[in-house]
Design a protein that fits this description.
It is a single chain. This protein has four helices and eight strands. With 170 residues, the chain is an alpha/beta fold. The strands form two sheets. The protein has a six-stranded mixed sheet, with helices on one face. The protein has a two-stranded antiparallel ribbon with strand order 6-7. Helix 3 runs parallel beside helix 4. The longest helix is centred in the first third of the chain and has 17 residues.
């Protein structure tokens, strides 16, 4: 009987070069297309149960009252500064920003504002008012920067609106 000699077969090496090439291309593409979550945190001052001291009561307080049909910009010393009616179902944030810039030019050291939304105010409207009164885009030396208006925002309840006109209490 004749013996059969078998050659010892060695196993072929696994070629992972094409897979590595795919990963080198695919990973950067996926990372570039990834949407990163962006969370903003805004410091707010909520009213406390304490009453105001005489010094705090005499200090100028700028108020933005959000009613269903209008925005009312007022202060505690002179009353209503500007009433901004809704146009086509939307608040006029451009006019609000212009009014806030005018107030800031008169009292440049003032940094706080009180926003008083009514119960009917939507969350998006409240956030839009907060963004509008906090800062605006300005061009400085050829580049666009965020200029500060009133970054310290306090929240309160809107006073009850009288029929025909806005009633603002201090």
């Amino acid at each position: 009987m004749r013996r059969k000699h078998r050659r010892l077969q060695s196993e072929a090496d696994l070629d992972i070069t094409p897979f590595m090439n795919l990963m080198i291309v695919l990973v950067p593409v996926l990372l570039l297309n990834m949407v990163f979550a962006h969370t903003s945190v805004l410091e707010l001052n909520f009213p406390t149960g304490e009453s105001l001291s005489a010094e705090q009561a005499e200090e100028l307080q700028i108020q933005v009252v959000i009613y269903d049909g209008q925005l009312v910009v007022a202060d505690n010393q002179g009353g209503v500064i500007k009433t901004i009616p809704r146009r086509e179902g939307e608040y006029d944030f451009v006019l609000l920003k212009d009014v806030m810039k005018e107030i800031k030019s008169r009292v440049p050291d003032k940094k706080d504002v009180i926003i008083m939304p009514s119960r009917e105010t939507s969350y998006q409207s409240l956030v839009s008012v907060m963004d509008t009164v906090r800062s605006y885009e300005a061009v400085v030396a050829g580049s666009v920067v965020e200029a500060e208006l009133f970054p310290e925002i306090s929240l309160g309840d809107a006073p009850v609106q009288a029929t025909g006109s806005a009633e603002v209490s201090s």
